[in-house]
Amino acid sequence: MAMPKPPHEDDARSERLGSAPLGPLMIKLSIPGMFGMIVMSIHNIVNTLWVTGLPDGTEAIAALTVMFPVQMVVSSVGMGIAMGLTSLVSRRLGEGRRDAVLRGAGNAIVLGAGFGVLFMILSLSAAHPLVRAFGATPELIELSAEYLARVSLAFPLFMVGLSLDGLYRGGGNVTVPMYLTGLSAVTNATLAPLLIYGVGPFPRWELNGAGVATAVAQVLTATTSLWYLRSGRSGFHLRRSDLKLDVEVIRDIAVVGVPAMAMNALRSITALVFNWVLGGFGAAAIAGHGLALRVMMLAVSCLGGGVHQALMPIVGYTFGSRDYRRMWSAYRLAAIWTSAGGLIIGGIICVFARQILAPLAREAELLDLATLALQLKLCTFFLVEPQMMAMFALEGMGFGGRAMMLNMSRDVILVLPALLVLPRIFGILGAYGAQAVADVLSMFVTFWIMSRVYRQYPPSASVPRGRAPLGPPVEQSVGAE
Fold first, then answer.
1. Where along the chain do its domains lie?
2. In 10 A of CB 400, how many CB atoms?
3. CA neighbor of 265 nearest in space, from 88, 414, 443, 412
4. Is the dihedral of CA 433, 419, 134, 217 positive or negative?
5. In this predicted structure, which of 51-60, 124-133, 223-232, 324-333 has the lowest mean pLDDT?
6. Closest C-alpha among 64, 6, 124, 30 to residue 293
7. CA nearest 232: which of 477, 10, 459, 8?
8. Which residues, other chains included, contact 76 with Cβ-Cβ below 8 Å and sequence gap of 6+?
9. In this predicted structure, what is the pLDDT of residue 479?
10. Engineering a disulfide at 317: which of 94, 163, 170, 325 sits with its beta carbon 3.0 to 4.6 angstroms away?
């Protein structure tokens, strides 16, 4: 069995968050996360490509789109725990409190597993009512419910895997999560066509086959992540006592984790309302929205999907060590990179949107709707990415409430009224364009929140490098906002 690395080697990866040149460091930390998310996004598009070849391809894509907010609710809890843990780990490493890191990791794993079991039981016992509540039209209910029943079997290990990703990222290790994401994508991409179409000895399960492939991939990935944690190679050596739930530790995770959960859960409500509104225009309108989302996720993966995984641990570490000058430099760099990249990538995809979507939408009506939806989503892409960097910077500082306020303004408070009003005036154009309207308005909310935080923690208040901080920042006590 491999011997654990010496402690000083374990600490080197996290210490670079506060000392390495920012530009090269952010590139180095962004690329693995970006690569992993690109692989996952391509995998989702390829899965859709397989599904669209089924006799009821449009309905199958619409069923997957209906499932999107259901899966978002589950993922929101896992990602909330992971983000809370990432923030805790990076801040505590910046403060030199390694024991607190291990207790946080143990508690996060137990919480993830517990919530995963709860969601699995709920999905298996109430699949039909759930998908109906999340916007499934009568012709989509059976397809969506059967898919949910298959995917839910992996929920417990899926949630544990998300928690472990948060541990690794908080310590500045973005390479292992990238490999794990790649493993999930390759496993799913290999199994999906075999189980969808019944190739060779495999049964033909059509859309259900995609659900089984996803569940198998998630179980394999989480199992591999647990093996890596126990092998000693991760640099984190958890003890059995770390798995004992501790109210103070849970509260520390919850400072960022609960607002992050709430943000993602609220996004699922927005997605649900999208399904309800678009359902009035037919299954093709829902499917077109779903196809646009998949391509949009690929665009996000090329930018913010990787950069935020570099930004959050850097901000957490520098905030914990009170190096505010470096912290703000990291945020500014991330915002400029993602805005410029969003303008370029968004423009290119908008121009070639129809050609990109053509293999996924084999019916003329579906192609027209998906193209319109994608172009409207991408027209504000260069404004959205800096806002997302602000949200992740706030989470890195431990200000989950402020991050939630920022995110709610864009994804709930501003978009829902637009979504309920604009379709009545502009029809399907208003439904697809509601998010773009919210993106523009939320710029002002982002500027207001970040200006207040900047005045509170200005670069001039930094502790000189090499001098140990006397304690955590005043507002960094648990629960402070």
1. 19-455
2. 28
3. 412
4. positive
5. 51-60
6. 64
7. 10
8. 260, 261, 262, 263, 264, 265, 267, 268
9. 38
10. 94
